[in-house]
Automatic annotation (TrEMBL):
Keyword Mitochondrion among record annotations: no
Organism encoding this protein: Pseudodesulfovibrio hydrargyri
The organism's place on the tree of life at top rank: Bacteria
Protein name stated in the entry: Inner membrane protein
Annotated InterPro entries: Transcription_regulator (IPR053170), YdjM-like (IPR007404)
Annotated transmembrane regions: 58-79, 91-114, 126-146, 153-176
Pfam families: YdjM
């Protein structure tokens, strides 16, 4: 989730907790820091593969956030000595776990069991940037700030909002999943699985990913008047074992196989051998807003590789980073 939403959860939490911490100094800014602190890993990244492996890793896990809450509580006690250590640790841990929740509800997901497991969990309750979600939270914060007599109650409602909205989206997504499956059945289209997740400007737009044999079908549902296209976008599913095989030459490919949820591939055959462009449907959309935004731009998390006729990597690129074995211009020709 975006930093504004994380910080607003901390601000809301600080306003809600103020009644229970009358002796605490600088409680609200400390709570904002506690709600943001799991993103501290962004300062320790070293290249795209490191970011794929470790962003939303241990610092956004149950274990890592507990260590961060303990550390922050210890530092906070230097500022507010009358505040009980266990009590403030519990508050900071709750707010850090709220951060984990807000990351968990996006399709990007997070490694909640790190360092004991690197499995990514995702609940598909909100798009990575959700104006309805965030602006409503900010409006509640403003109301709590202005209405001092009802500040505590409004802030508690605000904290509930951070959980109620994504849960409502999950329920809506489950309903839409059945609706879309019935559409496919009515048209006689064979499929293995239908997955619906919030897209940009949800709850209006919803991304639909259909697994259909060797392909994925990508579509958008519009709750404000669904103008169904003649056919969804059809792409070829990428073979993760092929990516892992390429990972024996360049480790990023094996990492990409682990990271992606719905990887797909486009293949061409230049004279030198073969060229593959890998993407993940988590970061591709037929939503008109996203289509407009990415017009003429490179989609995020795109991995491109050119192989010679023996299957050896000639050159590769990932989000603008290009290997040194060949000129980047050769790769995009």
């Amino acid at each position: 989730m975006d930093p504004v939403t994380h910080l607003s959860s901390g601000l809301m939490g600080g306003l809600a907790a103020r009644k229970w911490f009358p002796e605490a100094k600088f409680l609200v800014p400390a709570c904002m820091l506690a709600a943001w602190i799991p993103d501290v890993d962004i300062f320790f990244g070293d290249g795209p593969e490191f970011n794929l492996l470790y962003h939303r890793g241990i610092s956004t896990s149950f274990f890592g956030t507990f260590l961060l809450a303990l550390t922050l509580a210890g530092l906070y006690r230097l500022v507010s000595r009358r505040t009980p250590f266990i009590k403030i640790t519990a508050l900071f841990y709750s707010l850090s776990l709220t951060h984990v929740w807000l990351d968990l509800i996006t399709t990007y997901g997070t490694q909640i069991l790190a360092p004991f497991s690197n499995r990514r969990f995702a609940l598909d309750g909100a798009f990575i940037i959700d104006p309805v979600f965030t602006l409503t939270a900010l409006a509640l914060i403003l109301a709590a700030w202005l209405m001092k007599r009802h500040r505590h109650a409004i802030a508690l409602v605000g904290m509930a909002w951070f959980f109620a909205y994504p849960l409502a989206n999950m329920g809506t997504g489950a309903v839409l999943q059945n609706v879309y499956a019935h559409r496919l059945d009515a048209k006689g289209i064979a499929y293995d699985h239908v997955h619906v997740t919030p897209d940009a400007l949800a709850p209006r737009f919803w991304k639909v990913v259909v697994t259909a044999g060797p392909d994925y079908l990508l579509d958008t549902m519009d709750l404000f008047g669904d103008r169904e296209p003649a056919a969804p976008l059809r792409v070829r599913r990428a073979d993760k074992s092929f990516l892992r095989k390429l990972g024996e030459q360049q480790s990023l490919f094996a990492t990409y196989a682990w990271f992606t949820k719905w990887p797909y591939v486009e293949e061409t055959a230049p004279p030198q051998g073969a060229r593959f462009v890998f993407r993940d449907l988590r970061f591709t959309s037929t939503n008109p807003i996203m289509a407009w935004y990415y017009q003429g731009k490179r989609q995020p998390f795109t991995l491109t590789v050119q192989l010679d006729k023996s299957g050896s990597i000639i050159t590769w690129s990932f989000e603008g980073g290009v290997s040194s074995r060949a000129d980047a211009e050769d790769l995009i020709q």
